[in-house]
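Translate sequence into structure tokens.
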Amino acid sequence: MSKYAQPDRRPAVITGASSGIGAETAKALATAGFPVALGARRVDRVDEIAAAIRADGGEAVAHPLDVTSDESVAEFAAKVAADLGDVEVLVSNAGVTHPGATVDVPTETFAGQVDVNLLGAHRVLRAFGPGMIERRRGDLVFLSSDVAVRPRPFMGAYAASKWGLEGMVAALQMELEGTGVRASIVRPGPTHSDIGNEWPAELGGFVLEQWVRWGLARHPHFLKARAQADAITTIVTAPRGVHISTIDVNPEAPVEESR
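Result follows.
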């Protein structure tokens, strides 16, 4: 076996793992045999999810993680290394969005979304990417959004952060060529998650109306978060020599009655 072959044991880190896509990804990877490290600001939630994974026979740890803090990221990375050893997979999933007209959103709020969605992804990349390059193997998976190719009104900051994320990863993919480290983008379409749950009902309804107006919500179906987790699992379980660089995962429209 080549010294660069994937080992049987591949510890995986999932950020934003307290709910939605992150939580489902942790469960899916654990089921697939990956030791998982869950990170999020909601420590009670990741503790519960990790305990449930262990109860089902998986290997899981959980630690506090704020991707907007260099110190928090460094502490998290050190704890994960002590618990699980070298990290083979990073799923950068932490994200946030606060809707509003782009001209009205306070710059501080705009910057906060960029800090989590783009700079946070870079912070965790810096924490785990160099070790993967040194070992000549690893998977870096970044959760983008369909707003990166189909921007949605009243989500200007979120769109800007995801456009920036995809630009960063596109450059990264070229820089990593020949290192044995794969960087991939997952671009979820409408998916049930905690993102948006804190929006006032009237604001959420207005935003959805605007999506319909611009043809961005052609049908009412949303995916379950597990669909995105399954896509991520497919990416990181691909054999060496196969690089799934970008994948769009969207809800299928309801089947129409035959005419």
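Note: The beta strands are 12-15, 36-40, 60-64, 89-92, 138-143, 181-188, 246-249.
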